[in-house]
Amino acid sequence: MIKNIILIICLFLSLSSNAQEGYKLKKVDFKGNSEIKSNELESVTSLRAKSLFNRLQFWKKAPPFQKELLIKDLGNLHKIYQSQGYIDVNVKDSLAIDEEKMHIRVYYLIEENTPTRVKSFAWEVAKSNQEVKETILEILPKQKLINTNDIFTDKAVYNLMERAQNSLMNQGYVYAKTSPSFHIDTVRKTVDITLKLKQGNKYTNGEIYFEGLKKVPEKLLLKRLNLNSGDVFSAKKLNEAQSRAFNMQLFKYITIKPEKDSIQNQLINYKVKLEELNQWDLNLGLGYGTEDRIRAQVLLTKRAFLGGIRQFDLGIKTSYFEPINIYLKFRQPNLFADKVDFIWNPYYSRERELSYNVERLGANFTIEKKLNSKASTFLAYNIENSDVTKKGESNDQNSEIVEGSKQKSGITWGYQYRSVDHYFNPTKGWYAQSLTSYNGLGIKTDYSYFKLLLDGRTYRPFWRQWVFAARLHMGYIRSTNSNHLTPIEDRFLLGGGNSIRAYQRNSISANDKGSEIIGGNSMLEMSMEARFPIYNALEGALLADAGNVWAKSGQYRLNDLKYGFGLGLRYNTPIGPIRIDASAPVWDSFKMQLYITFGHAF
């Protein structure tokens, strides 16, 4: 009898599990979801129909329908809604079966219902003396991330617990622990939240031991770390110490870890493991791009120059448009205060443009300040001699190209903000930079002018691992001389692999004064890309660029923009993508431009 029952159950399970055997998954969709987007729901589901790109690959079969994955997905959808405050969510499936084509369309039907909201929030400190309890309560109110009537979400509670625990660790409470307690009213859809805190003992810094230190003076590194014996332990200060030490640019790697085995009498000792870089370093680079053609670089670096953490660089570059660029760079960190560097940068270069050549000899004197992990600013004084020569013989009576050597000097203030997730291949975040210059200060100068450059970029992920990237770039120059002239070599030109890609490099110019390519005093440039995955490290991109250059200062005519559209391929490497872009103008004469280079355009 029992054997028969087991046989019937096994037969039933076999029939139910194979009810849709051989069916292909045609579509997966969500219906009824308004508070959580479909792409976020897709991230927790396992059933996947063919993507748009895969549909073009007609030789590949559609994935099979699997009922066990459907059941798993229903559970995961329920969990994600509950984690975001929709405790009474109702999730069901609906199958549309095409018996003839053996296809199944899966629809997840979601009834979100009313979310649960926060009614009250409170801290509860573990048993301790009154003085310690008051100290803890002074720290915690700053961490209140949950407000009355907010939707009750796991993320908000976990973030609150993490920040409260980090704050306590930064005050010496190394083993602080937090645990939540909830009282949910299922009728009124409210919750009372209590966070219980157990702070433990308070710890201070002990001794510091080094492993791998050879040429760098121990005294210098200790001063940089600033982890003084007897100071209250702080996880934040420990991370800052490691960052300051690495930024000395004297080590391949450096780690600072508390020695847990040595924790006695509420003291924490540190062990610093490191490997020093060579004090002399030589780097050689060789590459090819359709614009620069063959390009090469030699960089000689001397670390610990004249002792300390000073650094000296000698660089030599060459390419088609810049036949020679030689520069020196001397950096003195922490000139007046922490994160304030002095940079001396003399240089010599020859540049080749379409209508003229320019030879530059000059130097920058810069004070640079790192404001935080995302922002920095600098103030620089520049002195330069520029020698401009025309290309070929020109009889243009309206030519603005003034040949000969000219002196320039002035100051530049710059600001940079970067919050992208990846330096070489960003997928989310912002980048902004501004450069404001006034030329005509200091030594004798032949030009006096004001120059402003603004550059803003954003990166936003969207549907199925696609990334939307956009850039806005603006420039403005105004002469403050009586002759109202600005130097040809400092005017704006557009076009090329990192600009408006439908046009040749630096070919977009204000041509109000004859046919020479002499740039302009106003510039506006906009670019957009939709970057999408193809296969492994290979990505594609849809390109759109627009912009122009105008002769007058402050002249921006939006009805006078040049447009370009195209396609691109990228192969991602650890230090940036190898890029191929093809783009053509929209209303001007059709001429496809092809660029092969390294790194994103923006």
The CATH topology of the largest domain comes to: Porin
User: Would you report the number of β strands?
Assistant: 25
Q: Please identify the top-level CATH class of the largest domain.
A: Mainly Beta
Q: How many individual domains?
A: 4
Brief account:
With 602 residues, the protein is mostly beta strands. Helices cover 15% and strands 45% of the residues.
Explain this structure.
- This protein has 602 residues and is mainly beta.
- The chain has four domains: 21-111, Roll (Ubiquitin-like (UB roll)), CATH 3.10.20; 117-198, membrane protein fhac (Ubiquitin-like (UB roll)); 204-276, membrane protein fhac (Ubiquitin-like (UB roll)); 333-526 and 549-562, membrane protein fhac: a member of the omp85/tpsb transporter family (Porin, Beta Barrel), CATH 2.40.160.50.
- Helices cover 15% and strands 45% of the residues.
- The protein has eight helices and 25 strands.
- It has helices at 2-17, 38-42, 52-56, 67-83, 130-139, 154-169, 218-225, 235-246; strands at residues 24-31, 90-98, 103-111, 117-125, 177-185, 190-198, 204-211, 251-258, 267-276, 280-289, 293-303, 311-318, 324-332, 340-352, 356-370, 375-390, 404-418, 429-439, 449-462, 466-479, 522-535, 538-550, 562-573, 576-585, 593-598.
- Strands 10-11-12-13-14-15-16-17-18-19-20-21-22-23-24-25 form a 16-stranded antiparallel beta sheet, with no helix packed on it. Strands 1-3-2 form a three-stranded mixed beta sheet, covered by helices on one side. Strands 4-6-5 form a three-stranded mixed beta sheet.
- Strand 11 (293-303) and strand 12 (311-318) form a beta hairpin.
- The longest helix is centred in the first third of the chain and has 17 residues, at 67-83.
- The radius of gyration is 32 Å and the shape is globular.
- It starts with a helix and ends with a strand.
- The model is unreliable at 3-19 (pLDDT under 50).
